[in-house]
Design brief:
Length: 116
């Protein structure tokens, strides 16, 4: 947004921040590892504008797939937090395995959603 305003030589009058960790201080560049953003990564607005943590519509298989996807994302975040405590090769191997699992889970979710 800032680049668009600068290019158009307009003054940015609103400054969006995210505060989802309860510390009372918003972040303009959220980082779920060190500040705000972890909750925002887990929740989203669905097509009706309601907050959702996964799919709507009562599809229990899709709900389970979203739960598995969130668990993998949580594992990735936990791994990133211990990156400095494990060897680089070990970190990269674990990260690669988790990212592949996440990509496959995303494919399952898309396939199920397209089949609804």
């Amino acid at each position: 947004m800032a680049r668009t305003y600068e290019a158009d030589k307009r003054l940015l009058t609103e400054h969006a921040v995210l505060d989802d960790n309860g510390d009372g201080e918003g972040s303009t560049e959220p980082d779920p590892d060190t500040s705000d953003g972890a909750l925002a990564r887990a929740l989203f607005l669905d097509r009706l504008g309601t907050v959702a943590a996964g799919p709507a519509g009562g599809d229990s298989v899709l709900v389970a797939l979203y739960k598995e996807k969130r668990e993998i994302e949580t594992q990735i975040q936990a791994l990133r937090k211990v990156k400095d405590q494990i060897g680089e090769e070990d970190y990269e191997a674990q990260l690669e395995e988790l990212l592949v699992r996440l990509a496959l889970k995303n494919r399952e979710v898309r396939t199920r959603e397209e089949g609804r």
